[in-house]
Structure formats: structure tokens, C-alpha cells
Specification:
It is built from 10 helices and 13 strands. The chain has 353 residues and is an alpha/beta fold. β3, α4 and β4 form a beta-alpha-beta unit. Bound molecules: pyridoxal-5'-phosphate.
Amino acid sequence: MAALWEQNIRKVVPYVAGEQPTDTNIIKLNTNENPYGPSPKVQELADHMDSDVLKKYPDQTAGDLVRAIADYHGFKPEEVFVGVGSDDVLAMCFMTFFNSDKPVLFPDITYSFYPVWAEMLRINYKTLPLDENFCIRPEDYNEPNGGVIFPNPNAPTAVLMGRDKVEEIISSNKDSIVIVDEAYIDFAEEGSSVIDLTRKYDNLIVVRTFSKSRSLAGLRIGYAVANEKLIKFINDVKYSYNSYTMNTPSIVLGTASIEDDEYFKEKVEAIKKTREWFTEELKKLGFRVLPSSANFVFASPRTKTAEEVFEEAKKRGIYVRFWNKPIIKDFLRITIGLDEEMKKVVDFLKEFC
Ligand SMILES: *Cc1c(COP(=O)(O)O)cnc(C)c1O
């Protein structure tokens, strides 16, 4: 029999991230990292960092980084919150804003961390199905709710919702907080972001990350943009939990990344170009490929099951992502890597599929 203290334990089913194998010989296309690496300016600063800065606690406000992000988007520092990756930012947002008996709404096929946070924080939630093309249906997000959250582009589908439709969801939910998780928006067509709508709607929060487009997954930086009032609410929760979330190297190196816009744009364009080429190759092989606005594609093979392709690819040192779950079990999520890596993937698929 279980000990009595067990009944008082908070038991959770944790989020499962993609594997991080230690073998450096593999083609790693399973966690949507950006293969180009961060700006050389980041390397330069890292080379010259004096370890003496580590003896002191970091700036609790991460002021330099917050100002750099605010400047970059044309906002005030008071309108920006930074956290330890957007996972931390999103977790803080769940804690801060989703505090109602009514369910928080999000798509059934989406970032699988959302239900994990909701379960852990005992937040009531309800998932809504995508349409047959894996698109979010804005008209479904009209029922009474305790908040709304979705990624745009969505994950793991890579499908983008147009700005007008995102705005439809925001404007029809004026009594709730709406969080748009723009983890992949830098890979979408320009003008797809709704970050500017945080000025028009006081219930909107836009969340971004340095992990994908800035190739800094290892540094752990994410941020939220919203009006001052909402940012203050998140900060109040953060300071009630852990004052020093952002470490000094992250603040310094993250700021350097923001300042090198040329490198950033060049690498994002390179990934988009490879994505277009890779998508065409997959289609030639008979794959169904959802239209991607991200640094990965969601694709379904025709002649083999997704699981067979996943297993065989892994044997050959190519790591992609597969979920043995209803609706998406026929699909693979494949991160866009370097050109030469994607050519090897195509060669493997030509042979195996
Ligand atoms: C990768 C990802 C995140 C989290 O990224 P961080 O590395 O924690 O910044 C958040 N949302 C979505 C949809 C993602 O794909």
C-alpha cells in the first residue's frame, strides 16, 4: 500500500522534449534548433567575458536585454517581460492570467506543453479541433472561457493563421487574456506577427523566443510583449517565485544577438530557402506536406508509415520527431537543417520510401 504522505504529493505527468543525443555524428532535426549558430558578435563577447561578473547576482530586471528587445520592436521596456526561454515566460503567463473556473481554450493539436502547465497548475482547459487542413478555426473561440492560447504558426503543424483571423480571435475575446505564442513567426511571411496589436487590444500578449530564429536554444531566452499593466502582473508573479531568473551571460549575449540584425536576417532567409527546396523534394516523393511558415515541416509519407520512416531514419543517424497519437500519427516533424543535411535526408527518403 502506498504511504499516506503520497496523497499529499503534487503528481504531474511532465512534458517530453525531443531527444538530445550526445553523439555529434547525427543529423539532428528533432527539436527545431537553428543549425547556423548565433551571431559572431555573440561569440566575440563570450570570448571576452570576465568570469568575475559571475560573483554578483545578475540584474533582476535583465534591464539591458529588456531595453534591447523593446528598442528592436519599438516598444517601451515596461512593455517587455523576459524569461528563461519562452517556456518560462509561458509558464509565468499561465500562473498569472489563467485563474478562472472557466476553461482556457487551445487547439487539440498544438504545443504539448500547454496541457502540462494547465494540469500542473490545476487550470481548467478545453481543446478545440483543427479543421481538415490542420487550420485553427477562429469562429470556435467564441465560447465563454478563462483565456485563450495558441502558437502562430502552430506547432507541430507549421501552419500559419493570417493576421485577420488572429485578430478575430483577439477581438471576440475582449473579456479574456489571449496569448499568441510566436515562437516561429520570424520564419513566416513578413507582416504576419500581431505584436503591434498589443497597442490596440489590452487583452493581448505576444510571446517570442531566441531559441529558434536566433539559434540560441542553449542560452534560454524568451520574452513577452504586452501593455504595461499586463507586464507588471507577470513581473509581480515572477518576483514572488524567483527574482533572478536571467543569468548574467544570458543578459549580455542575448543583447549582442539582438544588435546583429543583418546576420539574423541572413540566416532566417537561408532556412526559408532550404525549407522551400526541401518541401518540393518531399512532394516529389509523394509526401503530403503542410504549408510551412516555420523552420520545420510537418509531412506524411505515402509508401511507408511515419513510424517506419522515423525508426529507420534514426538507425541511420537522422533524428526527426514522431508522435504516436491520433490525428498526427501519419506525420513526421522535420526541422530544417543545413543544406547538406537536408540533401542527405532526401537521399535517404529516395532510397527508403
Ligand atoms: C520551442 C517552442 C517554445 C519554447 O521555446 P523556448 O526554448 O523555451 O524559448 C514555445 N512554444 C512553442 C510553440 C515552441 O515550439
